[in-house]
Amino acid sequence: MDQDKTNIPANKQKPLILVTNDDGVTARGIRSLVESVRPLGEVLVVAPDAPRSAQASALTVTNPLRVKKIEEEDGLTIYQCNGTPADCVKLAINQLAPRRPDIVVSGINHGTNSSISIIYSGTMGAAIEGCVAGIPSVGFSLCSYDPRADFDSAIQYAYTITQKVLAEGLPKTVCLNVNIPEKHHHIQGIKICRQSEGYWSEEFLKRQDPSGKNYYWLSGEFINAEQMSDDTDEWALEHGYVSIVPVKVDMTAYEFIDDLNKWVTDLESKA
Amino acid sequence: MDQDKTNIPANKQKPLILVTNDDGVTARGIRSLVESVRPLGEVLVVAPDAPRSAQASALTVTNPLRVKKIEEEDGLTIYQCNGTPADCVKLAINQLAPRRPDIVVSGINHGTNSSISIIYSGTMGAAIEGCVAGIPSVGFSLCSYDPRADFDSAIQYAYTITQKVLAEGLPKTVCLNVNIPEKHHHIQGIKICRQSEGYWSEEFLKRQDPSGKNYYWLSGEFINAEQMSDDTDEWALEHGYVSIVPVKVDMTAYEFIDDLNKWVTDLESKA
Questions:
Q1: What is the pLDDT of residue B132?
Q2: In the 3-class helix/strand/coil scheme, how is B237-265 assigned residue by residue?
Q3: Residues of chain B whose pLDDT is less than 70?
Q4: What is d(CA A63, CA A79) in angstroms, rounded to the nearest whole number?
Q5: Chain B closest-CA separation from residue A73 CA (Å)
Q6: What is the residue extent of each domain of chain A?
Q7: Is A42 helix (H, G, I), strand (E, B) or coil?
Q8: What are B152-180's pLDDT values in tens digits?
Q9: Could you give phi then psi for residue A71, rounded to 5 degrees?
């Protein structure tokens, strides 16, 4: 077995698949993901009891966490939790799972998580948490915000990709961010991509409450700062591909270390 | 001016320094940071109204944000906000700042934010948010959890580093994660580092409430997975150095793209 790969499941028992999300345990997306991966192993769901969008890797530190088993049948156990997606993964691995999960899958998020959204996404926060724990992890998102969105193509790709990751493993400290276009007959194929540079603009609606006090709603429009690059997740999705970005938890900007080293003498002389 | 650098302040007016944190607007650390950077420009503080530790890059999407100006004097304006650290930075840049800030400084966090803590830290979530907005940004943390911790050395290093970043700028999409040992006379110097690989173990205390129901408190112990490497932030801090890790918002694992491309034919044939 490759020493750099972790957790390729033993042949003796079915893989244990930990499922979570950030849209909450009752969301269509997580039910779709359970349907997708259930043929591949034993499924443990630990998911937030209500939507926790844009929670990134946030953890609950000032309140206790509570969990409640809400479903149990052959090969499927479902818990809800009052914490964030990352809390759910930690609790599942440390307290609830009957053994160490072989894979963590998160989603299927009801909306795109490409480009800079990875920084904010609770779906990816959960996948990153699985990755930090040394377990192969994948976040899945459907590129549609329509309440009646069709999850069928996402279910199919989530199955295929989960099966592949179970078979192949992933490098330590790398997880996958998968975004899937909605309409299957439009899908051109799969592109392995890098995270596009982007940001959100005009980010708030400013309003007044009945007493005349201001409040602000997060709003805004995503700006892809790399319109011309054909190797990004944004390009792939705009051109009808499923995008897969390998994501690492090491955020070091190695290419800037040499430049920064030139600062040290000056900084030390003043400190 | 270097085209790859952003926001080196114009000479005509004092730099505008945006200050935030995750310990809340009344924390000792943010007051120390204001004291530190005030000689360098005009200071705008927009910080959470209460502690928001471990909030990562979380955003508030399901509730409106409210802000309140709590102090205003010559060259210093302080707002508190009911949002996360990243919310505070967004609101400051988009709604509250009189002009575009020249730098975002976050902290001084009352506790270390090295290694994998960057994934969870609200202090760094705020710095990353400034970076995404194209503004040079730095997160500062003091390596002490003692309520009576001495912030003097952190104040001195925060001043020197902020001054340097104002003068030199930072590459687009790179910010700095600075951790500072508490005792000035023990500090050996400054090390430019990479993020150490690490994780938390035995993460929960399981307890029962008076009605016999379980609850869980996040707890646990940090494990440095790279004890032997001398180029990490953990090594630097253990050996008495101030650690500076350049952090980038592009989380792509470029080194795994070629391997993943070998999966595509197989995945597409099954989808």
A1: 96
A2: HHCCEEEEEEEECCCECHHHHHHHHCCHH
A3: 1-12
A4: 19
A5: 22
A6: 16-196+228-270
A7: strand
A8: 999 999 999 999 999 999 999 999 999 99
A9: -150, 145
Å between A55 CA and nearest CA of chain B: 4
Please determine, for residue A253, whether its predicted confidence score (pLDDT) is greater than 90.
yes
Q: Does the distance separating the beta carbons of B247 and A247 come in below 8 Å?
A: no
Residue among A55, A61, A254 minimizing CB distance to B194: A254
Mutate: best of A185, A260, A262, partner B, most B CBs <10 A: A260
Reported as half-sphere exposure (CB side, CA atoms, 13 A), residue B76 has a value of 12
Q: What φ, ψ does residue A152 adopt, rounded to 5°?
A: -60, -45
Mutate to test the interface with A, among B153, B216, B219, B229 (most CBs of A within 10 A): B216
**The pLDDT value given to residue A9:** 52
Whether B164 sits inside 8 A of A266 (CB atoms) is: yes
pLDDT of amino acid A118: 96
Closest-CA residue of B relative to A90 is B203
Helix, strand, or coil (residue A16): strand
Distance from the Cα of A12 to chain B's closest Cα (Å) equals 25
A8 has pLDDT over 70:
no
Q: What are the residues whose beta carbons fall under 8 Å from the beta carbon of A133, sequence distance 6 or more? A: A89, A90, A93, A104, B199
Q: CA–CA separation, A265 vs A160, rounded Å?
A: 53
Residue B215 to residue A54, Cβ atoms within 8 A: no
Distance from CA of B29 to the nearest CA of A (A): 19
Q: How far is B12 from chain A (nearest CA, A)?
A: 25
Residue A192's H or E segment, with its range, is strand A189-192
Q: B16-197+228-270, which class in CATH? A: alpha beta
Q: Which of A65, A67, A171 faces B256 most closely, judged by CB atoms?
A: A171
What is the homologous superfamily of the domain A16-196+228-270 according to CATH? Survival protein SurE-like phosphatase/nucleotidase (3.40.1210.10)
CA A154 to chain centroid = 14
Q: How far apart are CA A29 and CA A23, in angstroms?
A: 8
Average pLDDT value for residue range A150-175: 97
Angle at B31 between CA B196 and CA B221, to 5 degrees: 30
Query: What ipTM does this complex have?
Result: 0.93
Q: To which residue do tokens 């995008």 refer?
A: A243
Q: Which of chain A's residues have a Cβ under 8 Å away from the Cβ of B87?
A: 218
Q: Do A252 and B246 touch (CB under 8 A)?
A: yes
> What is the model's pLDDT at position B1?
36
